[in-house]
Write a structure and sequence with these properties.
The complex is a heterodimer of chains A (about 150) and B (about 80). With about 150 residues, chain A is α+β, with helices and mostly antiparallel strands. In chain A, a hairpin with a 2-residue loop joins strand 7 (about 120-125) and strand 8 (about 130-135). The longest helix of chain A is centred in the middle third of the chain and has 19 residues, at about 55-70. In chain A, the strands form two sheets. Chain A has a four-stranded mixed beta sheet with strand order 1-4-6-2, with helices on both faces. Helix content of chain A is about 35%, strand content about 35%. Chain A has one domain: Aldehyde Oxidoreductase, domain 3 (Alpha-Beta Complex), CATH 3.90.1170.40. Chain A has helices spanning about 10-20, 55-70, 100-120, 140-145; strands spanning about 1-5, 30-35, 45-50, 75-80, 85, 90-100, 120-125, 130-135. Chain B has one domain (about 1-75): Roll (Ubiquitin-like (UB roll)), CATH 3.10.20.30. Chain B has helices spanning about 5-15, 30-40, 40-45; strands spanning about 1-5, 15-20, 55, 60, 75. A five-stranded mixed beta sheet of chain B has the order 2-1-5-3-4. Chains A and B meet through helix 2, helix 3 and strand 7 of A and helix 1 of B.
């Protein structure tokens, strides 16, 4: 298991290649990369993520261990940035390795659903109209509840 | 006891952390929030909707009925928006 919480940018492709370099003969790998969104109707200039790193590491390690055990993953990795990011910047990357694709997809989705609600990051968007905290979404709670 | 604040809670209280010495009656996270709110106008307002206040003790997520002790680091924060 590899879990990183960092302010530095990461290269999604390089991270994927490194993850795949030791694949233990697995049949399936999934990489999910979350990017800073900015759409024409709702543009943002920057996204600043506040973080409690010590708690983030504890929370993400716990849920990653759960994902490995629940879906029979060979390994899993999570990288999550904080600090000030721009539209298009990678925020988060989840990678899973499993014997078959079903487990690799499910493990990655499970990890992302938990990160949305249980990882101590708080997003603040700077927009042309001013700054605003992103509110927790009921649909994210519902997405997590599917796994319970 | 060290208390950490994050996101809009940190902004409304105008501080990211503080060291407090609550009285012996403060035994849980909920007690601590009530005590902080009773002693400061900004805190009273910031903590007015208790359902929006999440907590961790020593970097572990807990409920409001979890115990707190003098040497603990207690973090208080709004619902998380990671991913």
């Amino acid at each position: 298991m590899s879990v990183r919480v960092q302010t530095a940018a990461f290269d999604p492709g390089a991270e994927t290649n490194e993850f795949l370099a030791t694949n233990a003969g697995a049949g399936a790998a999934v990489t999910f990369t979350g990017l800073v969104r900015s759409q024409p109707g709702d543009p943002i200039t920057t996204l600043t993520l506040e973080c409690y790193p010590e708690l983030a590491i504890n929370q993400i390690r716990t849920v990653t261990a759960q994902a490995i055990s629940r879906f029979g993953l060979i390994k899993a990795a999570v990288i999550h940035r904080y600090g000030t990011l721009r539209p298009g910047d990678p925020i988060v990357q989840v990678m899973t390795l499993a014997p078959h694709r079903g487990a690799a997809f499910a493990g990655a989705e499970f990890l992302m659903d938990y990160l949305k609600t249980d990882a101590p990051f708080w997003k603040k968007e700077a927009t042309p109209e001013g700054a605003r905290w992103v509110e927790a979404k009921a649909e994210d709670d519902a997405a997590k509840a599917r796994w319970e | 006891m060290k208390v950490l604040y994050f996101a809009w809670l940190r902004e409304r209280l105008n501080k990211g952390e503080e060291t407090v010495s609550p009285p012996a009656e403060v035994k849980t996270v909920g007690d601590l929030i009530a005590w902080l709110a009773a002693n400061d106008e900004a805190a009273e307002l910031a903590f007015s909707n208790r359902k929006l206040i999440k907590a961790a003790v020593n970097a572990r997520i807990v409920n409001h009925d979890a115990p707190v002790a003098a040497n603990d680091t207690v973090a208080l924060f709004p619902p998380m928006t990671g991913g």
